[in-house]
Structures are given as structure tokens and as C-alpha cells.
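Curious: why this fold?
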Amino acid sequence: MKAASPRFSVLLPTHNRPDVLGFAIASVLAQSEPDFELLIVADGCTGSTREVVGRFSDDRIRFFDLPKAPYYGYANRNVALRLAKGRIVAYAAHDDLLLPDHLALIGQLIDSSGAAWAYSRPLWVTTDGIIVPYCTNLTLSDELSAFVMRNTIPTVCVAHTRSALEAAGYWPEDVAAAADWVL
């Protein structure tokens, strides 16, 4: 019998990117950790977005087709997050791909350490298909300073407990950009 609450809630916001959305959804559904719900938040999207989401038949998907919210749709993300059932919240955007063991590894780290949040390292793929890792040695003071100043942890690399999100007050809805920094 499946538990009423999944281990993870994965938030996937989108705004009119049907060209890449299907790949992002498929990468979440391909996780080796199957105990999650996928919260797809359409922020004022067209019918093409609905068509892409409709191609996936998976009970773990919850689709929030919402009118356009101000800025980058942070208010719409909060609509879904307030209804999230998972103990751990993870992220993917319409142009992100999760490696198949992302949820399993980051969940293991949170569970084994008792931490409220954790992050993984990002990989960027150029338009030429070249994979570029971002490596940082945080024991070196100059790299630590650059790391803090440049916000080199994309939201897709972050996971945190739902209780930590509730304590932080959810995504700020009154900022034009970079709400993840404010959060």
C-alpha cells in the first residue's frame, strides 16, 4: 500500500516552454527514487504547455494551470507548495534535467545528516551539447567568497524539508527576480 504522503514534492514551474518541458518532466519521472509527487506549475501558459503535460500519464503528477502571476510567478509556486504533501521539497524548472539518482542521493544526505536543506553540484550543457561542471573548493577563502557572491547554486540543485520552507515563509512574492536568494 502506498503511503498517503510521498517522501518528495518536486516543484516544476513553467511559462510557455513546451519545447523543453517534456524533457524536464521525463527526467523527474525517471528518478531511481519513486516516492515523489511532481507539482507542475503553469504560470499563465498557453495550450501547448497543457498538451505536453497531457502526454504523461502518471498519478504522481499534479498540474496547476494558473493565470500569469507577477514577475516570475513566485505566487503560483507558493500555491502548489502550500498543497505539497512531501516531507522534502526539490526543484526542477522547465529547462532543467535531473540525473536519475538526484532525489535518492539528496534525500539520503538530508535524512542521514538531519539537515534542513542540501544541495548538489550543477552541470551546464551548452547549445553545442558540451557538459560543463561547476567545481568549487569551499575550503579556499577566495572560492568561498566568489561562491557566496555569485549565487552559484541553481534552485534545481537544492532540496529542503517542507518544515524549513514553512518556517522561512515560502517564496517571496514581491520581488521581481532572484526570489531564491531572498528565500
